[in-house]
Design a protein that fits this description.
Structural class: mainly alpha
Number of domains: 1
GO cellular component, one term: plasma membrane
Membrane topology: Multi-pass membrane protein
Strand content: under 5%
Subcellular location: Membrane
Main location: membrane
Shape: globular
Number of strands: 3
Strand order of the largest sheet: 2-1-3
Radius of gyration: 21 Å
InterPro entries: GPCR_Rhodpsn, GPCR_Rhodpsn_7TM, Olfact_rcpt, Olfactory_Receptors
Distance between the termini: 55 Å
Order of helices and strands: EHHEHHHEHHHHHH
Length: 317
């Protein structure tokens, strides 16, 4: 595989991709093309349904629509490049394009991390302060919280990429992955990266695992509250269903990100990195619409109104 001269500045990276087998590449191209289209379709349906149905103009659905937008944005950053790579044996990405990909990937991923925290807080208020819920989570508060998630993602990404740009790249240019990400790129720097790795682990890995633990504790408290204080069957079932859905996505997202960014670069497990990266970048964005929203009764009713009564009977009967 191509490598640059050890004294030359790296101007592009070679991506090894998911596999070197042409037959397997074609099969994976079909699978991930379907997943990519499903991600777009599922999340677009959620956004359209929430916008068009006034009954869904509530804090939780506003947050879910923003999550759907983040899922679409996240898939755009890495999946198209992966699909193109599956059609080619020679996969390259320019240095500047690699930096941009990492910037937007961590920008959107950071926004996702903070939005999941906001959604947990929303559920906490809804369960513990039901009478004051709409007053506390009013439109201005929700808008400010969502804006804060994007600002938090921007700050996180700017810090990470700013540190990467300080590193010299003058040796190997081969990345054993299907997209550019900071842990793999840092390993190619022709200088000691120990301090940078510590900063990366502390900002990405440790922060992710701390938030993950806090979210698990908060959802446990919420579920205990639901079990002990809600007596109405339908209401309890709906609350359990919503919180358990949130918990599944939180576990998938934070679990994978913690394993990717907490592991030191000295531990090189390329196959596990690729599997975790696929779940982190592709699978969660596809599953989110089904886990969170499309099995939700209120969203189904809103979708039925968009499709019309005739189509409703054939699709939802």
């Amino acid at each position: 595989m191509e490598q640059k001269n050890l004294t030359a500045t790296v101007t592009e990276f070679v991506l090894l991709g998911l596999t070197q087998s042409p037959e397997l590449q074609r099969f994976l191209f079909i699978i991930f093309s379907i997943l990519y289209l499903t991600t777009w379709l599922g999340n677009f349906i959620i956004i359209t349904t929430v916008i068009s149905n006034h009954r869904l103009h509530t804090p939780i659905y506003f947050l879910l629509a923003n999550l759907a937008f983040i899922d679409i944005s996240d898939s755009i950053v890495s999946v198209p490049k992966m699909l193109l790579g599956l059609l080619s044996q020679h996969k390259t990405i320019s240095f500047n394009e690699c930096i941009l990909q990492m910037f937007f990937f961590h920008f959107i991923a950071g926004a996702m991390v903070f939005l999941l925290v906001v959604m947990a807080a929303d559920r906490y208020v809804a369960i513990h302060k039901p009478l004051q819920y709409l007053t506390i989570m009013n439109r201005g508060v929700c808008g400010g919280l969502v804006a804060g998630t994007w600002m938090g993602g921007l700050a996180h990404s700017a810090i990470q990429i700013g540190l990467v740009l300080q590193l010299p790249f003058c040796g190997s240019n081969v990345l054993d992955n299907f997209y550019c990400d900071i842990p793999q790129v840092v390993k190619l720097a022709c200088t000691d990266t120990y301090l940078f790795e510590l900063l990366m682990v502390s900002q990405s890995g440790v922060l992710a695992i701390i938030i993950f633990i806090l979210l698990l504790i908060s959802y446990t408290i919420i579920l205990v509250k639901i079990r002990t204080h809600l007596t109405e069957g339908k209401r309890r079932h709906k609350a359990f269903s919503t919180c358990s859905s949130h918990l599944i996505v939180v576990t998938l997202y934070y679990g994978c990100s913690s394993l990717i960014y907490l592991r030191p670069n000295s531990i090189n497990l390329p196959d596990s990195n690729k599997v975790l990266s696929l779940i982190y970048t592709t699978v969660t964005s596809t599953l989110n619409p089904f886990i969170y929203t499309l099995r939700n009764k209120e969203v189904k009713e809103g979708l039925r109104k968009i499709l019309g009564d005739d189509e409703e009977k054939s699709i939802f009967s």
